[in-house]
């Protein structure tokens, strides 16, 4: 196959008519025979599912296998079958037109749908008509990845438009969906909705900062209501988008994972077919391992943060000996070195544990993995602030005397004094920490996410070029055709990019922003202002990251933001609890003196706040359910049209009758044309009948 562009579609043409590229790393094989055998199996598997292939050299030790459909009719047929399957599962409101080409004329094929159909054929198990290619797994250990190419013209226009606009329109979200799939589009829709709500939270936060006292009860209540309204509104918006994009309930109907390993066979109670399954009781037994794993991970990370926190308090607020300015960095060094290592170890364990649970569908696998990641990030994000708020400030004067080793060691002999006397609690410490996590840490994360990877990639590329020149191993692609050289250079560069995972961005928004806003914004009301500024940049930087720093995402479908919806719901509830506790513990009386704290009062405020949260949630949910939305209206319209059509068919009302009712002529196929063609319309039939009646009366 020659890599010649197609003229049908500009994006397709810019990719030389290539659908996907399989990155084959033959240098990882034990010997040439193994590499040759696996490569032959790869090409044979692609050919068996109707794919056309061609091969070009990749970077050192790799091959690039270019893949596309062998025929247009094969593509049209697969798209039609995919849409019929969606209709049978209730994802689409109506069946696609039986004439496949007419179906595509009514609903044009988008780039995302084309790539999704091709990807399903490449990766679905052979039992479902796919090639069963699973990169790095099973018999495909030398396949590093499968990825589509970026549409650089779209990317340039996308970044240009977003750099000059304030908000993201529904049309823009539709463009993202058509290019990158619903999963990525849902993330940007969530980010835009969150950004819009932040405008309200930021305005109230500024007013509270200047007009209300610190730890204001009014601010805490309004902030809790704001979070409840946002979550409930987003649930409603998800339904609208799912209906508009024809993916309603798509997460409930997915093909089996290629990695799924069934153990038994059973008869499907609905279809009567024999299907391979994994016993539910055995999966439940394996899932029970999540409990000790979560507890163990929580204990390890919490203990690390507690020890690090104790060292930080001792050095910064107790220790007055030599090298204090240097020792102040000790907690930072400990956290920087140990936390990433522990997170990496625990993440690897979580991945293996999730694979061991042997989920049948990708959505279930993803949900299980996200919940494990949620535990890690919850501890890393919030435990330092919980320690400060609920341990350091109220109990430091009691705890420090028992742990102050340095305080005793640094005092000269004969001048020792009680640690409790020399130790002074810093009541402003919690506010400083909140400002750090909501301002400084956000800026650092943004730089680490966008700027650092760009320069890192450039530096590594330059270093490799210098090293290859010195060693004489510089790769020169002398066999590249001049017409293909620029295109192949682009492909090789994209093959070296990282794989984009939308869950990383969702985790950042939910854990490192929304969570802080719900749990700790009463400490510093300007939290929403910081996030508002950050998110305006985040919208653009995430778009740039996808276009420049990452491979083009596989256009997976989704009907929501997945398990992160439950996570932000949990954070909203927890925010009502922590806000009540913070206001009760740190607010002052009218005279400026601290409140008298009691355990009964603390528990009472938490229970009262929690009940307010549940009441507010029910009220907001009920109110929103009474309001119509474009998505729900469209869904009812589609159902009505389908019911009317089926009713008409059951009563024998055909297209000709509809045409006559609408004033059209209609057509008739079959019968004696001379006999039926005398009277062209109902009016002519009436006139003819009247004429016969009149003639009959005259004769009488």
TrEMBL record:
Keyword Membrane: yes
The entry's keywords: Membrane, Transmembrane, Transmembrane helix
Domain Anoctamin transmembrane span(s) in chain numbering: 176-637
Record-annotated Anoctamin alpha-beta plait domain positions: 17-143
Membrane topology note: Multi-pass membrane protein
TM regions (residue ranges): 184-207, 213-231, 291-311, 323-346, 373-395, 434-455, 568-587, 596-616
Domain of life: Eukaryota
Gene Ontology, cellular component aspect: cortical endoplasmic reticulum; membrane
Cellular localisation: Membrane
Main location: membrane
Name under which the protein is recorded: Calcium-activated chloride channel-domain-containing protein
């Amino acid at each position: 196959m020659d890599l010649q562009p197609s003229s049908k579609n500009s994006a397709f043409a810019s990719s030389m008519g290539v659908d996907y590229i399989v990155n084959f790393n033959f240098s990882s094989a034990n010997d040439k025979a193994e590499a040759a055998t696996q490569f032959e199996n790869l090409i044979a598997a692609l050919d068996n599912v109707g794919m056309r292939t061609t091969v070009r050299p990749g970077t050192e030790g790799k091959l690039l296998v270019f893949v596309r459909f062998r025929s247009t009719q094969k593509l049209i047929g697969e798209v039609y079958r995919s849409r019929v399957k969606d209709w049978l599962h209730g994802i689409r409101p109506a069946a696609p037109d039986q004439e496949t080409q007419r179906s595509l004329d009514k609903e044009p094929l988008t780039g995302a749908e084309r790539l999704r159909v091709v990807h399903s054929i490449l990766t679905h198990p052979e039992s479902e008509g796919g090639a069963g290619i699973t990169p790095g797994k099973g018999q495909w250990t030398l396949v590093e990845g499968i990825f589509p190419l970026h549409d650089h013209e779209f990317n340039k226009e996308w970044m240009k438009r977003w750099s000059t606009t304030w908000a993201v329109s529904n049309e823009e979200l539709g463009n993202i969906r058509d290019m990158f799939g619903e999963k990525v589009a849902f993330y940007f829709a969530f980010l835009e909705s969150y950004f819009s709500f932040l405008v309200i939270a930021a305005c109230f936060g500024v007013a509270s900062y200047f007009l209300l006292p610190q730890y204001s009860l009014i601010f805490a209540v309004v902030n809790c209501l704001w979070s409840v309204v946002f979550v409930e509104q987003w649930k409603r918006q998800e339904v609208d988008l799912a209906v508009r994009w024809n993916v309603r309930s798509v997460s409930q109907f997915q093909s089996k994972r290629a990695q799924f390993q069934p153990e038994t066979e059973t008869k499907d109670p609905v279809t009567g077919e024999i299907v391979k399954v994994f016993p539910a009781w055995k999966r439940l037994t394996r899932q029970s391992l999540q409990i000790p794993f979560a507890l163990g991970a929580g204990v390890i990370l919490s203990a690390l943060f507690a020890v690090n926190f104790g060292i930080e308090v001792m050095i910064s607020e107790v220790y007055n000996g030599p090298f204090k300015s240097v020792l102040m960095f000790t907690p930072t060094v400990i956290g920087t070195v140990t936390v990433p290592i522990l997170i990496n170890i625990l993440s690897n364990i979580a991945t293996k544990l999730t694979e061991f649970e042997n989920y049948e569908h990708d959505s279930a696998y993803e949900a299980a993995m996200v919940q494990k990641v949620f535990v890690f990030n919850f501890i890393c994000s919030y435990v330092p602030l919980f320690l400060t708020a609920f341990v350091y400030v109220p109990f430091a004067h009691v705890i420090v005397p028992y742990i102050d080793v340095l305080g005793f060691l640094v005092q000269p002999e004969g001048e020792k004094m009680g640690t409790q006397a020399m130790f002074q609690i810093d009541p402003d410490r919690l506010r400083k920490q909140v400002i750090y996590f909501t301002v400084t840490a956000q800026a650092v994360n943004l730089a680490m996410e966008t700027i650092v990877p760009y320069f890192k990639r450039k530096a590594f590329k330059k270093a490799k070029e210098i090293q290859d020149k010195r060693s004489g191993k510089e790769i020169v692609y002398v066999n590249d055709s001049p017409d293909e050289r620029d295109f192949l250079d682009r492909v090789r560069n994209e093959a070296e990019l990282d794989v984009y995972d939308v869950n990383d961005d969702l985790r950042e928004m939910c854990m490192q922003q929304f969570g802080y806003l719900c749990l700790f914004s009463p400490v510093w009301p300007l939290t929403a202002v910081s996030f508002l500024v950050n998110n305006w940049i985040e919208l653009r930087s995430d778009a740039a990251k996808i276009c420049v720093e990452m491979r083009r995402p596989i256009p997976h479908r989704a009907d929501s933001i997945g398990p992160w919806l439950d996570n932000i719901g949990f954070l909203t509830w927890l925010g009502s609890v922590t806000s009540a506790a913070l206001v009760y513990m740190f607010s002052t009386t009218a005279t400026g003196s601290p409140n008298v704290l009691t355990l009964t009062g603390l528990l009472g405020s938490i229970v009262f706040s929690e009940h307010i949260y549940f009441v507010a949630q029910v009220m907001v949910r009920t109110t929103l359910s009474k309001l119509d939305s474009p998505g729900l209206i469209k869904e009812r319209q589609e159902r009505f049209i389908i019911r009317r059509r089926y009713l008409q068919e059951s009563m024998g009302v055909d297209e000709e009758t509809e045409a006559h009712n609408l004033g059209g002529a209609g057509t008739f196929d079959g019968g004696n044309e001379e006999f039926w063609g005398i009277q062209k319309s109902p009016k002519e039939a009436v006139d003819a009948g009247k004429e016969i009646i009149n003639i009959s009366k005259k004769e009488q």
